[in-house]
Every structure is written in C-alpha cells, then in structure tokens.
Amino acid sequence: MSPLNYRPTKMLVNLDAIRSTIRKLTEYLPEKTMTIAVVKANGYGHGDVEVALAAFEAGAGMVSVATPDEALRLRERGIKGDILVMGPSPVSFALIAAELGISVTVPDENWLLAVNARNWEVGMVLKVHVKIDSGMGRIGLRDKQSLELVVDTINNSEHFLFEGIFTHFASADEEDATGTRNQFEKFMELVGTLHEKPRLVHASNSAATLLYPEYALDAVRFGISMYGIAPSTYVEGKIPFHLERALTLETELAHVKKVPAGSFISYGATYETTEDEWIGTLPIGYADGLRRGLRGQEVLIDGKRMPLVGTICMDQCMVKLPNEYPVGQKVVLLGVQGDEEIKMEEWADRLDTIPYEIAVTLMKRIPRIFTGENGQHN
Ligand SMILES: *Cc1c(COP(=O)(O)O)cnc(C)c1O
Question: For residue 40, which atom of ligand 1 is closest to its CA?
C-alpha cells in the first residue's frame, strides 16, 4: 500500500484466487481452447494490469478489453502479451494498434474499408478479429455478403492479418438455451463459408463457457467469472467448478458514539433512534461506489451483520452497532468475515442491478491492494 493511503477504506484483490480460477478453467476446457481473460473496465474494477499479469501467469493466452484506451494503458504499463480490443475502435487507432501489436475488432465493412484506405507503411500489419452479429444486435456483420467483402479486403492487403472471428451471446446466462443455440448455429454457418479459417474462432462469454463447453471452439472470452462471480443466479446453480471470489471491500470504524433515543442520523434526518443506540461512522460513501440506494444494507463487524442506517453520504455512512466497538475495528462491506459473507449479488439485488455493475462502479478512489503471490502487498 502506498504510504499515502491513510484512509482505511480499501479493496483487497486476491490474485491467487484469479489464478486458481483460470487454472481450473483450463482443466475444464478442451485442450485446444485458449482462455482470453477479459480485463475491460479496469479488470471489472479489480485492477486491469495486475489481473492481466496474473491471468497470463495462470495460462491465459490473450487478454481483452473494450476500448482502445484500455489496450494502450495495458501496453504502457508493460503488458507484453496479446491484447484484443473487442469493442469498436476509431479508424485513426488502426495504425497505432498495428505498431503496438494490439488486435482490433472489425465491427462492419465500412470500418475496414476506411482502415484499408489509410496510409500504411511497408511492413505494418494489423491483427483483426471479424465480429459477427449473430443476434446481439450490437456490432458485427450480419450476412454472408458482408463477410465475403470483409474477408476479401483482409486477404488482398498485406497490412491485415486475419487472426480471429467471433460473436457474442445475448442471453447465455438464462435458463432457456434456445437463443444461444440459434446464435451459435448462425455464427457457425457464417464461419463455414470461409475458405480458410483464422487461428481463433470464438464465441463464449463466462456463462456460455461454464454452461456449454461444446461451444468452446478455439478460445473463450472469460470475464466476470474469472473474478469469482457467477454471471447470473441460474448459472451459479450449474457451475462446473468452484469460483473463488477475488475481491474484499473493507474499512474500519472511524468514530463510535452512543446516542440517546430520539436522535436523528445523517442528511434529511430520515433515521431516528428508537432507544439509546451505539452508532459507528464508516469512512466510505457514494463517491466510493457505496451507492445511496444501499441504505439499510448490512456490513460485517466482529463476524456479525449490522445495518447501515440513515442516508449514505458522499464520503461516510453510519452503522448501527449492538454494543460499543473500538475505533479501528475492521468492517467488511463485501467479502467474508467469520462465518458470514456479503456478496456483490446482495448489493445488486438491493439496487435492482447485476453484480457486473457493482464491480465496475467501485470507484478509483478506493485503493486496490493486491494480495497473493506476486501481489505487491502479500
Ligand atoms: C464483456 C464481454 C465479454 C465477457 O463477458 P462475461 O459475461 O463477463 O464473461 C465477452 N465478450 C465480449 C464481446 C464482451 O463485451
């Protein structure tokens, strides 16, 4: 931890958990299937560079991100392995991507034609993955004619390397498998029209990887579950191997007092004590990602659940204690303490969202402390 992190609010990220999940995944997947570790959005909030390094160590063959800037950041921080930008990149990024050996996605034919018309120096090669829209409706080619045009353009230029073709499932985390099967079939039909297949044909996200090993192909793009989180409750019930959670969010009691019955707590005076109550103050608030809607959510202190009371402030919030605890007492907001665990899913339910959104809205202001082998702070 940097000596400048005086505030006890921190996120512990266990790199051993991430490595162990990737190793289990490798064992579970067919031998020829490569793991592409998805580290977009700062590694789902966990820390992109550290997670990428851990993933490569554990056997991932590539990492992927959503935006060109995320890829640049990884290269700048010394990540030398293969990186794929899965989302659209501006045409102007193509030359830089070629120079830095970053693979990019072809979202449609116009993008490729515009990139092709750029000023390419002799010997410059851009690695491309062609995206097929098999039913997600986001980016990608939708028919045989566009695919033919794109592949011809790639093959007729010495500046493109046709490295991959992929699609993305819209509802692989749901019980009804029909949509996913239809998407897979449509994708494979288009892939089947290629005279020569690229090195990496890939389709699956975490949910499809865990539920449908038969769709694994040459690679899987493994995101949320690398961090130990199931894509949905349905998938959680079908998980083929244990997912170990990597993240713990913790802080300490910063202030403790006994207030008499009839006292008000926090903005708007919406919480009134009904008896003499011990109230603790936590140095974490909505500017850290502890959203205001989490009022009433429990935290773990002394291995027990205790509720947040009153409005959550920008930087602080209050917890109702059953008795006095000392300032400095450990508080776990997400993670395990004693026999209790608070999962992101619990926050997600309260906020009517999914754990993905919880993970990525834990703010940069919270320092990430990496634990486990090769963590800076083990
Ligand atoms: C985010 C993303 C993934 C990873 O999805 P998870 O559900 O987190 O595994 C895979 N592919 C694409 C194109 C994505 O955008």
Answer: 1
Expressed in angstroms and rounded, the spacing between residue 295 Cα and the centre of ligand 1 is: 30
Q: Which of 144, 258, 267, 364 is catalytic?
A: 267
Q: How far is the CA of 49 from the centre of ligand 1 (A)?
A: 18
267 is catalytic: yes
Q: Give start and end residues of each alpha helix (H) in 6-108.
A: 15-28, 40-44, 48-57, 68-76, 94-100
Checking DSSP bridges between strand 330-337 and strand 317-321, what pairing results, if any? unpaired
The closest of 324, 322, 306 to 251, measured between CA atoms, is 306
**Full pLDDT tens readout for the chain, 378 residues:** 455 578 999 999 999 999 999 999 999 999 999 999 999 999 999 999 999 999 999 999 999 999 999 999 999 999 999 999 999 999 999 999 999 999 999 999 999 999 999 999 999 999 999 999 999 999 999 999 999 999 999 999 999 999 999 999 999 999 999 999 999 999 999 999 999 999 999 999 999 999 999 999 999 999 999 999 999 999 999 999 999 999 999 999 999 999 999 999 999 999 999 999 999 999 999 999 999 999 999 999 999 999 999 999 999 999 999 999 999 999 999 999 999 999 999 999 999 999 999 999 999 999 999 999 877 654
